[in-house]
């Protein structure tokens, strides 16, 4: 099975050379195979968000390499990195960050329009995704009219709108109550498997992590198997 994501020797230090220097990542090696869902667990402040941002091309490592779908992204300029991030990577945050002035449908359509997808095709794709996660009937509602669980489901759809090969999620249900979190997480897992994605999902919830194909832990700046 070929690799969708490969991190090799990735390092990251904040405030390098200063008294308050913090070495967050100390040579991270991690792979996610095509179609594999990997859970990432770590205590708060251990650097999992930094790791996800580097994997998702939102931040640059100080050292090491990042490959996505076999393409080495190390050293590339902003334009090719942005193109890969826009077309090949979906990102879900703990807080949905939906655009409040637009409907649920619009929030899923807009990323596709930015990728030059025709509007009618984008709307069809968006509604199909919203139906898959059970909020199709709420497509014309703005985020303020949706529950927290519904808002996060819309955020899932937005992340998958452009058919990325790789999904990265940073505590995607962390701001929901435990019951809603479990239900919404199951929706996410179903959506990821249905779309045939590779995924790296950070969570502090060990019960949720156990539902994934494999779990790794970020420990003292390095990734170790669980």
From TrEMBL:
One of its GO terms (cellular component) is membrane protein complex. PROSITE patterns: ABC_TRANSPORTER_1, ABC_TRANSPORTER_2. The keyword 4Fe-4S does not apply. It holds the Pfam family ABC_tran. GO terms for biological process: lipoprotein localization to outer membrane; protein localization to outer membrane. InterPro entries: AAA+_ATPase, ABC_transporter-like_ATP-bd, ABC_transporter-like_CS, ABC_transpr_LolD-like, MacB-like_ATP-bd, P-loop_NTPase. Belongs to the ABC transporter superfamily. Macrolide exporter (TC 3.A.1.122) family. Keywords: ATP-binding, Cell inner membrane, Cell membrane, Lipoprotein, Membrane, Nucleotide-binding, Transport. This is Lipoprotein-releasing system ATP-binding protein. SUPFAM superfamilies: P-loop containing nucleoside triphosphate hydrolases. GO terms for molecular function: ATP binding; ATP hydrolysis activity; transmembrane transporter activity. Residues 5-226 form the ABC transporter domain.
């Amino acid at each position: 099975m070929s690799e969708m994501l490969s991190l090799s020797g990735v390092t990251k230090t904040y405030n390098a050379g200063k008294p308050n220097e913090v070495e967050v990542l100390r040579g991270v090696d991690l792979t996610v195979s095509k179609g594999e869902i990997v859970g990432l667990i770590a205590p708060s402040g251990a650097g999992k968000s930094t790791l996800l941002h580097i994997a998702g091309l939102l931040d640059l490592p100080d050292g090491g390499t990042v490959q996505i779908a076999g393409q080495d992204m190390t050293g590339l300029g902003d334009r090719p990195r942005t193109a890969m991030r826009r077309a090949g990577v979906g990102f879900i945050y703990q807080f949905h960050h939906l655009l409040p002035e637009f409907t649920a449908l619009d929030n899923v359509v807009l990323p596709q329009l930015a990728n030059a997808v025709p509007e009618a095709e984008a709307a069809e794709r968006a509604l199909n995704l919203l139906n898959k996660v059970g909020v199709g009937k709420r497509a014309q509602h703005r985020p303020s009219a949706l529950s927290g669980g519904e808002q996060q489901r819309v955020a899932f759809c937005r992340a998958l709108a452009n058919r990325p090969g790789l999904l990265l999620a940073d505590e995607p249900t962390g701001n929901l109550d435990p019951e809603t979190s479990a239900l919404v997480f199951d929706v996410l897992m179903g959506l990821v498997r249905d779309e045939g994605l590779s995924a790296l999902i950070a969570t502090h919830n060990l019960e949720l992590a156990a539902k994934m194909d494999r779990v790794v832990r970020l420990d003292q700046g390095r990734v170790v198997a669980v």
